[in-house]
Each structure stands twice: as structure tokens, then as C-alpha cells.
Amino acid sequence: MNSDTFPIRILSGKTGVPSATIRAWERRYNILPAHRTASGHRYYNDDDALYVQQLLARMEQGKTISKAIREVDAWLAQGQVLKARVESTHNQQWQHIIDAMLEAVSQFDSFALDQVNAGNNARQGLPKSISLVSIYVIKWGLDCIIR
User: Fold this and answer.
1) Where do runs of H (alpha helix) occur along the chain?
2) CA atoms of 47 and 29, how far apart (whole Å)
3) Which of 125, 73, 60 lies closest to 99, judged by CA?
4) If pLDDT is split at 50, 70 and 90, which confidence band does 106 have?
5) Residue 26 neighbours by CB under 8 Å, 6+ apart
6) 49 and 100, same domain (yes or no)
């Protein structure tokens, strides 16, 4: 199996939930759908361990397993929505920076390129190492064209 996955006994060890309970939850509540090998062995990943830990935290607060499942599912759904919003915003910000860099290059304007890079570093948009490499490569290309 994949190195990012592990058998039920490891999930049990990571969470403190007996393997039999994990199998029962899978059967009764249709949660933790295990990845299975050809021989039928269940394999899980770190997301599954987080899910079980979140269930346990809610159950320790006195909630039933059914209520804990509903809350964790809602928590995960909200997390996915927030993640999508962050990625969308982040991608839009990067696209703006990339567009500005391309515009500066198309105008052979190394000063504008420096300004875009300075603004990017202040906003921490593109990773600095990528931004610096891009700037140096583009400036080198501009210098070659101008000469």
C-alpha cells in the first residue's frame, strides 16, 4: 500500500480507539471508508486519524457519536469552503502579479518590473525565491534583447 496509508492497528494506536470500534463505526455510521487492499485489508491516512480525534474530542464533551459525526462533518465542510476561498483569493493575487510582470516585460520596462517585485515582496504573494528568480531571468532576457 501507499506509504501515506497505514493499517487499522496503526490508526487504533494513533487515536486510542480499538480496531473493533473503528470497524463498527464504519459499518454503523458509514464513516471512515477505508482504502482496501486486494485481500480486503483496511488502510487509513492522517486525515482519517484527524477525523477520529475530532470525534473523540466531541464525545469527551458528552456528545453522542451521532452528534459528534454531524459536528465533525460540518466542521470539515466549513474547512473545505474556507480553503477554497483562500486558494481562490491567493490564485487571483498571484495572477495579478504575473500579469503585471508580463506587462512590464512586454514594454521592456525593467523599472516597472522592479516595482512589481517590490510590491509582491511587500504583499508576500509569490514565494520570494520564485519571484527573485523570475525577476533575474526576465531582466537578463531584457538586457540581452536591448544589447
Assistant:
1) 8-15, 19-29, 46-60, 65-106, 110-123, 128-146
2) 17
3) 125
4) low
5) 32, 33, 34, 42
6) no
The cell numbers describing 37, all together, are: 487492499
Q: What is the CATH number of the domain that holds 51?
A: 1.10.1660.10
Instruction: pLDDT band for 129, please (50, 70, 90 cuts).
Output: very low
Burial of 100 (0-12, 13-18, 19+ CB in 10 A): middle
Average of per-residue pLDDT across 20-46:
93
Residue 33 has pLDDT above 50, yes or no: yes
- Residue given cell 465533525 in the structure block: 72
What is residue 40's three-state secondary structure?
coil
Q: Where in the sequence is the domain holding 133, given as residue range(s)?
A: 83-146
